[in-house]
Structure formats: C-alpha cells, structure tokens
Design a protein that fits this description.
935 residues, alpha/beta, 6-stranded parallel beta sheet, globular
C-alpha cells in the first residue's frame, strides 16, 4: 500500500520540529517506520543519531521489527538506534552516566508492588513527621497498607510533575509541608538503599543532564533526531527531558492524538501535545493523518459523533476523519446488545450472540472478539466471564484480580500452610480476627479434599511437613520450599503440559508468578535461611503481611506482548489496556459510568501546588477525560462495534447513563431489521510479529545445558534460587568493571579506592538481594580484586571497551551480548571474559566457555572493521588464563550453530533431557525431575 499524501509529507519532513496528529487507524506506525527508513537509507543519517520513544515495550519491539524488515537487504544495522519507552531510555541515560548519578552501580528499580512494600516497611519514618495525622485526618479509618498506597500515589505525582520538595516544605498549609518533608525523607531512604522507583527514573535522568554539562553535551551531540510516539500521554518531566536533549538541533518530531489522551491519572498532561506547536514560533510543521484504514465507515462516523457531541472550547485539535474508498458504505456496523433489568438475561444474550458468530462462521476464533470495560474486577464483569466459561467460551482476562482464586494457587498456598504453620503462629488465632483467615481455610480445604483421594500425595506431604518441623540444618528460604512443593505428586498435572499458548498454559504461568511472590518474600524478610529460631517470624510475615497485602492489592496474571489476543478466548480488557490494539469485534460495556464531578480532598491539595499548571478548566477535566476514554474504546473496533448493558430506567442511576443515552438510543439493536448480519464480514485478528532477542549465556547455553530448565526459567519465568555463589560472582564482576572503567577514563586508582568501592558494592547488593556472605568469603573476593589491580595491567592498560553491548540483527530475531572487556594489541582486538569460579572445577564447562568467547568474537567482528584475534578466559580466583584463538572463517559456522538452537527455542522444542546429570544435582528442579523420572 502506497503512502497517502499526509503520510508522505510526514515521512519526507526530516529537519526541524514537527507535530503529527494521528487519528485512530491512520497508519501511524507505518508512517514512523517509513520515516526512519527514509532517514537512514535516503538521507544517510546514522541510526545512532536517532532516538525513538514509544509508550510500551511492545510498540518499541514492533517498530524495530518492522524497520529491520524494511532494511534487511540494505546492509544497514539498526542496533545502535536509541529506541524504547521513555523509562527504558532514561535508564540507559542513567547507566551511561552513572558517575554523575546519585545512585551507585547495581541500583535496583522498584516495581509498583515493590514500591508499596518499601513504603509500608518505612511508614514509621513518615509517622514521625509533623502533619502526618492531619494529612490522613479524613482517612484515619485506613490501615497502614492503605495509607502507604496514598503516599505512593503522591510521591509518584511529585516525581512526574518535577516538583521540588523544598517548595512544598515552605508552604503554610500543614498537609502540603508534611508532603514535602515526607517526599524528601522518601528520596533519602531510597538513595541510602541504592533504589529508585519507576516514576523517579525519568526525574534522575533529567537531573543528571540538567546539572552536568558534560553529560548533556555528550547526549546532545549524540542524538540529533528525536521521535516521540503517543505524545498526548507524556508528563511534565518527560517533556522537559525531551526538550533538554533536543534543544540543540530542534529536530523533534512528536506523534499522537489528543482525543486519545487517557493517562492523566499517571501524571500525563494533554497540555504537551496541545501546546507543542506554539513552543517553536511558527517553525513547527503540523501534519494530520485523518484517513482511518482500520474501521468501517459507520464506526468512524459514530466515533466522530461521540467526540463532537461535547463542546471542547479549543482544548483539542480539530480533525476531519474519513475512510478509504473500499470502506465507504453505509451499512450499520455500530449496534447495541442489551436487555432490561435482568443481569442473567444479559449474560445469556451475550453468550448466544458469541455462539451465533462462531457457529455461522462469521468468526473463526473467539479471539476476534474483545470486551472493553472501565474495570474488569467488579463482580458483574467477573460473573459474566464465569458464565461464558461455563458455556464453553474461553475468556482471557489477566487483570480481573482472579490470581489468588485460581485452583493451582489455592492448592500451593494450602500446601505452604499445611507444611509451615505451627502452634505459635498467629495465622489462625481467633484473637487477631484476620480477614484473610477464611481464604486460608478455603485453601486448606481444597488441599485436604485432594489428599483424601490420593494416599501417595498425602504421604509425600506428611514427609515434607515433618522435615520442616525439624529444621536441623535450615532451609534456603521459602523459595526452596516452593521447589520441594513442585516435586509433590499433586503438582505434576500443573507442570507436565506440552501445550502452546497463554491460555492453555495459564496454570503454569501463574505458578511462575507465585515463585516471584515467594522470592520477594525471602528478600523482604531479609532471611536467607529458615531456621528453628526464625521460622515463626518468617511465616507470620509471609501469611499475615506479604500474601495478605498482595491479595488485597490484586496480582495480575501473565500477559504475553506477542499474543495480546490468545486463540480460543474472547478478551476481557480495561479500556486503558486496549490502548494501541485493534479487534474485529469490540463490545463496550460499563455504560453506567459517567464523568464524576465531585471534588475529593486529594484534588484540593493538588490544586494548591499545581495552580500554574491547570491548563484545562478544572471543572471540565473529568468531562474531557471521560469523552477521551470512551472515544479510545470505540475506535478499537474494525468491523463491528457493540454497546452493551443491562438497561435500567428507574431510580437514581439510569443505565445507560445520560452521557451515553443520546448516542445509544440512536443505535439499532443487533437483531433489528436495520442490521444485516448476512453482509457482515469479520476479519481475522492480526498476528503481531515482534522480534525477540537472544544471547549466548542467557539463552543458547541455558538451553544446551537443559531444555526443561530453560522452559521453566525463561518461558514461564520461574525464579531461580538465590545462591551465595551468584551473589559473589556479581560482587567481583562489579569491582572488575569499576577498575576497568576507571582506567578507560584515564583515572588513577589505588588499592584503597578499590577496597572502598568493593565494600560499598557489597553493602548495596546485600540489601537488594537479601543475602549476607560469610566474612571470609567477602575478604577472599576483595583479595582477588586487589590481585587483579596489581597483576592485570596487560588487560586494563590496553582497554578499548568495558561492558560493551553488541547486537546482530537476523531475519526474525536479534542476537545480543555484553562483553566484559575488549583490549587492543598491535591493532588487533581481544575479548576478555572473567570467571569467578575455580579453574580446575570449571574444566567441565570449558567447552561452553570457549564457545562463549568465540561467539563474542563473532559479535565483535560483525560490529568492527578491526581484526578480532581471539579471546582470553580469565579466572579471577588465581589469575590463571586460557587463550582462545579465533579465525574469521569460523563466523558463519558459529552463528549457524547458534541459530540451530534458537530455532528449537522458537519452535518450543523443550522435551529433550539434559545429558549432564552432575549439573542436575545443583539444580532447583532436581526433586521434581527425580519424581517424574527425568533424571
């Protein structure tokens, strides 16, 4: 398909600022792809001069996949392109300028749930600040967990808006000054523990560039062209960062649709896209993509009627949305499917409609249908999902808060309770009146029903229980129990599954998620071992805080960015979740919703310190956001849009609400004569081709050593046991990196510098990984690092690169690798790979190590014009070395060998058994594999 006039205009305008207003289905991604192709292929712009920011990692991967596909015959390598979400790009800026950061190497980024636990665990510090009680005076009924969630929301908002705590501290309003003091304390504690939360990633990147001219000049000279997708969903600090980087050349291209700005609750401001043009004094080119290639004409007309039904008072870009000639017909493709008063009848009618579509061949698969709601967690929506599943219609609803109600999770929690709970635990003691007790009793009941029918299962469970009642040598945390549970007979049916797809493997994905929950509990309880002395403390924390708060908060089930609409199931998604997606049939619910106009206390507080940034009239904001939200929902539909609800005409709350009533009543019912279902042609759900990245250590070698372990760790994301040896290896590697980077930068370092850095790294890793090494091991590691400083001059005095990231783009995947060290001697490059294990004990892995070195040589040779001579395996423990020769003629054979394994991974070939039984003895899956005769 050729580019239309507007798309071509956007593709060909390269220099200077440009605003692209891209309506739904207007070929935005294709336009961005062709613009990049034009830049690098026709204009000769090097990919490393281009920064592209997308809203999601999925969008970034789709973009790079399509760009690579377009350029595959051009011998142009795109691996140096700066591409990703704004947060991932900010992390890259922090990592590349770590010496200017307030953080240290090895810092930890807190996910949302980690952040909640972090704030909850530090709540005592905030309670000491003057104004705490006043801040929560209207929320005194909340427990500490809920109060922590309120603080989290405010801390994130302050970070996203770039508001300094000093401004808040000086405010005469006690609530505002408390917020300033609390935010300052929060940032101080984070930095002390070498952590940052998701919202502070961009704040730290901005601070680094704003306060350090060298760092800013480096990135401004490096990045000449900037492209920002979904600009309507950027926040204040992101805009500041974009303009800071792009200010030198002003080649800033932003793309978005203000009508789809739906992330105000995450700090986004529509002001950014509405005022972008005005920031350049008539220098900014504006291009509007208004042809909708996605949706049928009646759907586009309905979306236009919806957005035009509100008076916007200039707070949106005007658009003239049209469809191409092939979609220019007047057939009704927007309908309603509703009943009066009865929820049961509504469920039945929806089920009948879906069955009709499938049985008449209108759809080939249920994944062609998506339901969109404001929330998928309320009882009405969950009840509909259960009804459809009962009728044999699969439902994919990963954010319905059903994780803790899945059979496999209840059974595993039941086992943990059965094995761990002792008389002194508080879990079932009546005086504590815990609201989660009924849930735990239900988990135990489910387990007991199963073991009554299976004597072998019961005997295995009793044996495990006795083992934990007599902890002589201790256990390596709750995660060790998790892997012992997997070996029980009752777990085999959950794990032994050769099916493909997210839905078919939901149980196994959920068990993988539970392994992460257990690992987090081990880290947060700061106990690397379970002993007789601490088992009550650890288990009370696990059941009374960790699981309790996670259940209260809700845990999402697995989502695969490559399989957004799993086969065999209709999708139940939130409207926000559907952003950027499209479906042949879209059924929009939540028609009882209306734009809430009540002001809450939080808005009143916010108004005090955001007076100068309101932009839109405060009294119109809820209304604007509501219309944008449902416009986004309606515009996801390609062939058929259905509005559905249980109509209620009496009482205070009408359904549909007044906001929908006018457009809703204009729609024909799905079974009316105005709707000709015989002419309804429904397209198939588009497969999204996303390019995966594979490396030698994390993929090739892991698969070669054991396909089953690879599947469990990499596909289903089972967390591995945290071991002192892994911790030790990370610690030593970080110290070697410090020495090498200091020499690369021309700095002189002493033994004292190395020791100070080593011990700081140890303290930071100890906090983030929850493991403490014996003092002798810590001292041994320090001696090894000092020896390298004394004796490793042949390496660090010839340094070319440290921690060098390299990529090769293949037809359907990316090869990536990070090289510890690259040195240059007599014009030839040598790869150095550090090993912290013992040389003699590592001989059994020698062939793997040699392949790894040769593989890195291949990567390096593909990315340089210099000759790569070979590599060195350096054993840090005693300073011994093994030289590995490399010949350029080996490249194709090595890459072919790598490709053969990657093809097996891509084709889900995981049935082969490991040939190295010795390695099985050190594997967390060993008891499971013994139980099913895999070893």
């Amino acid at each position: 398909m050729k580019l239309n006039k507007s798309q071509k205009e956007a593709v060909e305008h390269i220099d200077g600022p440009m605003l692209i207003i891209a309506g739904p289905g207007s070929g935005k991604t294709r336009t961005l792809v062709e613009r990049v192709v034009n830049m690098v292929k026709n204009k000769g712009i090097s990919p490393d001069k281009i920064l592209i920011s997308t809203f999601t990692e999925r969008a970034a991967r789709e973009l790079i996949t399509r760009i690579t596909s377009r350029l595959k015959d051009e011998n142009i390598y795109m691996n140096s392109l700066y591409i990703g979400t704004i947060h991932s790009i900010c992390l890259r800026i922090i990592d590349e300028n770590i010496e200017y950061s307030l953080l240290k190497k090895g810092y930890k980024v807190l996910e949302t749930i980690d952040q909640k636990f972090f704030i909850f665990s530090k709540l005592k510090y905030f309670k000491e600040i003057l104004g705490y009680n006043e801040f929560f005076i209207k929320k005194s009924y909340m427990n500490s967990w809920k109060q922590g969630e309120i603080l989290l929301k405010w801390f994130n908002k302050l970070s996203e808006e770039g508001i300094e705590e000093t401004v808040l501290k000086e405010n005469i309003n006690l609530k505002i000054s408390f917020l300033g003091e609390a935010f300052e304390k929060y940032k101080k504690i984070l930095l002390e523990e070498n952590k940052l939360d998701f919202s502070m990633i961009q704040l730290e990147a901005y601070r680094i560039l704003k306060e350090n001219n060298i760092a800013l000049e480096n990135i401004q000279n490096k990045i000449n062209y900037i492209m920002i997708d979904e600009y309507q969903d950027t926040n204040t600090i992101q805009e500041k960062l974009i303009f800071l980087i792009g200010n030198k050349f002003k080649n800033i291209c932003v793309v978005g649709d203000d009508d789809q700005g739906i992330y105000r609750f995450r700090g986004a401001t529509i002001k950014n896209i509405l005022q972008f043009e005005s920031k350049f004094q008539n220098e900014c080119k504006v291009v509007k993509l208004e042809t909708n290639y996605r949706s049928e004409k009646s759907i586009v007309s309905f979306c236009k009627a919806w957005i035009d039904s509100l008076y916007w008072d200039g707070f949106r870009h005007e658009k003239n949305l049209i469809v191409p000639e092939e979609k220019d017909n007047d057939e009704a493709k927007v309908v309603r499917l509703s009943v009066s008063e009865s929820e049961n009848t509504w469920q039945e009618r929806i089920g009948e409609f879906l069955k009709f579509l499938k049985n008449t061949g209108k759809i080939k698969d249920y994944n062609q249908v998506a339901f969109l709601f404001r929330s998928v967690k309320n009882k009405k929506i969950v009840s509909l999902a259960h009804y459809l599943e009962y009728k044999g219609i699969g439902v994919y609803s990963p954010r319905s808060n059903l994780f803790f109600y899945r059979d496999e999770i209840k059974e595993i929690i039941g086992i943990f309770l059965y094995v761990l709970i002792r008389e002194d635990n508080k879990v079932f003691k009546t005086e504590y009146k815990l609201d989660i007790v009924d849930y735990y009793k239900n988990c135990l009941n489910i387990l007991e029903k199963k073991i009554r029918k299976d004597l072998d299962y019961f005997n295995q469970l009793e044996k495990l229980k006795i083992e934990y009642e007599n902890l002589k040598d201790g256990k390596n945390g709750l995660l060790e129990l998790f892997y012992e549970v997997l070996a029980l007979k009752g777990m085999e049916s959950f794990i032994k599954n050769d099916s493909e797809g997210v839905l078919e493997n939901r149980k196994l994905y959920n068990i993988g998620i539970f392994s992460k929950i257990v690992e987090k509990a081990d880290i947060l309880s700061r106990s690397s071992k379970i002993t007789e002395e601490n088992i009550i403390k650890i288990t009370d924390y696990f059941f009374l805080m960790h699981l309790k708060f996670l259940k209260q908060n809700g845990v999402d089930e697995y989502e695969d960015i490559k399989e957004f609409a799993p086969k065999g199931a209709v999708s139940f998604l939130t409207i926000h979740q559907s952003k950027g997606l499209e479906f042949p049939v879209v059924i929009v619910g939540s028609l009882e919703s209306s734009p809430e106009k009540e002001r809450d206390e939080d808005e009143e507080i916010e108004e005090i310190f955001l007076k100068n940034d309101s932009f839109e009239p405060e009294y119109r904001i809820k209304e604007f956001d509501f219309w944008r939200l449902y416009y986004t929902a309606f515009s996801r539909a390609k062939d058929l849009l259905v509005l559905s609800c249980v109509e209620i005409s009496k009482g205070k709350r009408e359904v549909p609400s007044p906001a929908f009533k006018r457009v809703y009543e204009m729609l024909p019912d799905i079974i009316s004569k105005e709707v000709n279902l015989d002419k309804l042609n429904i397209s198939e759900t588009n497969d999204v081709q996303l390019m995966d990245a594979f490396s030698c250590t994390s993929h090739y070698l892991k698969y070669v050593n054991c396909p089953f372990k690879y599947k469990m760790n990499k596909i289903f994301e089972f967390k591995g046991l945290r071991t002192p040896s892994t911790f030790f290896g990370n610690l030593v590697h970080q110290s070697l990196e410090f020495i090498n980077k200091e020499y690369l930068n021309g700095e002189k370092i002493s033994l004292e510098d190395v020791e100070k850095n080593y011990l700081n790294d140890y303290e930071n890793l100890k906090i983030s990984q929850g493991i403490k090494l014996p003092e002798k091991i810590v001292e041994a590691g320090l001696e090894q690092v000092k020896r390298y400083l004394k004796d490793g001059f042949e390496f660090y005095k010839n340094i070319s690169y440290v921690e060098k990231e390299l990529h090769i783009l293949k037809e359907d995947y990316t090869i990536e690798g990070k090289l510890d060290l690259v040195i240059e001697k007599e014009g030839e490059l040598i790869v150095v790979d550090f090993k912290t294990g013992d040389m003699e004990k590592s001989l059994e892995n020698l062939e793997d190590y040699k392949f790894q070195i040769k593989f890195y040589c291949c990567l390096l040779q593909k990315n340089t014009d210099k000759k790569v001579k070979g590599g060195v395996i350096y054993f840090v423990k005693d300073g011994s070395k093994i030289d590995v020769d490399f010949n350029n003629n080996e490249v194709e054979d090595i890459l072919k060998k790598f490709d053969e394994i990657i093809k097996k991974i891509q084709n889900q070939k995981f049935t082969e058994r490991t040939q190295n039984k010795k390695k099985c003895l050190n594997c967390e899956f060993k008891k499971y594999c013994f139980s099913v005769n895999m070893i």
